């Protein structure tokens, strides 16, 4: 699995893990409200699975970018500028995903 695919998977898992808490806050900040927003908490039981998937995919991306060589030396993906760019994208994606994962613990401070 390439670092790009694992990053995309971790973003989707992070969004799924925080959907029960972030989505109502975003909708409230946009001026939308209603009793139907209580249905978004129905995803709370599957939140630990989404968290596990997000952390797994972040760890796989980290492993492929920093610990093992997945590209032969004669290919463009082995160039230093390309690797730096991939690492920059990794941290640019991982930090917001980790923020989404911990947001439900801080969400009560905003309500």
Element layout with pairings:
Elements: H1 3-29, H2 47-67, H3 80-106
Helix pairs in contact: 1-2, 1-3, 2-3
Report the sheet with the most strands, covering strand number, pairing sense and barrel closure.
none
Number of folding domains?
1
Give the fraction of residues assigned to helices: 55-70%
Helices and strands, in order, run as HHH
Structural Rg = 17 Å
The computed structural class is: mainly alpha
Helix segment count? 3
Through-space gap between termini = 40 Å
Number of strands: 0
Q: Determine the strand fraction and express it as a percent band.
A: under 5%
Low-pLDDT residue spans: none
Per the principal axes of the C-alpha atoms, what is the gross shape?
A: elongated
Tell me what you see in this structure.
- The protein is mostly helical and 111 residues long.
- It has one domain.
- Helices cover 68% and strands 0% of the residues.
- The mean pLDDT is 77.
Give me a quick take on this structure.
It is built from 3 helices and no strands. It is mostly helical.
Task: Using brief descriptors, characterize the structure shown.
mainly alpha, elongated, about 70% helix, about 0% strand, about 110 residues, 3 helices
